[in-house]
Amino acid sequence: MEGQILQVEPGQRSGLILGADGNRYGFSSPDWKPSDAPATGLRVDFVATDGRATEIFALPGQAGAPPAPAAMSQPAGMVNEGSSVMLGLIGIGCLLLGFVIPVLPTVVAFILGLVGADSAKRHNNNTGLILSRVAWIGALILMAIGVLLLAFAASFAWPFLQMLLDNLMEMARQQPTHVALL
Predict the structure, then answer these.
(1) 55 Cβ neighbours under 8 A, 6+ residues apart
(2) The pLDDT value given to residue 69
(3) What gap in Å lies between CA 121 and CA 46, rounded to an integer?
(4) DSSP labels, 89-118
(5) 14, 25 in Cβ contact below 8 A?
(6) What is the pLDDT of residue 11?
(7) 110 to each of 85, 100, 106, 117, 127, how far by Cα in Å?
(8) Per-residue pLDDT at 78 exceeds 80
């Protein structure tokens, strides 16, 4: 796969590569094959293995230069890594709204949290992952508390409803029946 070096650790031969698939791959010194040091912006060819870049070679005629904005753009249909942070923040906002309006915002927070966490994992975005996890785990906890509160309320309301039903049945038995003669 082809990609571009996004970051090189100072004084080391390790860093981060943005692959043509839009994912980021870490690499270390043993993975870098050329004799010269890797440089930010350098176009490379590599093998993606378990989220890491291995067997990395610089593409011919490439000089280390800062990455151009066009080279950093995501392929069509790919989610930008900043979207996982935004999804996490919106999810947390919906979670907080769930304390005021019970059901729908909590479900939305749960879904946005899961989608944001997936996006953050694919882009190695720790901030987005934390925010998204707060959203979906918080929504899950809020939904569980809601179910427990409904069960608790039903257990207290059941005797009252039973008494009301018994009174209605008794009143129905005591009503005289009127028969109309035709």
Answers:
(1) 31, 33, 46, 47
(2) 44
(3) 21
(4) HHHHHHHHHTTTS-SHHHHHHHHHHHHHHH
(5) no
(6) 74
(7) 15, 16, 6, 11, 17
(8) no
pLDDT band at 41 (very low <50, low <70, confident <90, very high): confident
Model-level pTM greater than 0.85?
A: no
Burial class (CB in 10 A: 0-12, 13-18, 19+), 84: buried
Partners of 44 in the β-ladder? 3, 58
Tokens 């000089």 belong to 63
- What is the helix (H) or strand (E) element at residue 144, kind and residue range? helix 126-174
Show the tokens assigned to 120.
Answer: 């953050």
Q: What is the pLDDT of residue 67?
A: 44
Counting every residue written for the chain, the total comes to: 182
Q: What proportion of the chain, given as a percentage, has pLDDT over 90?
A: 17
Whole-angstrom distance, CA of residue 111 vs CA of residue 147:
18
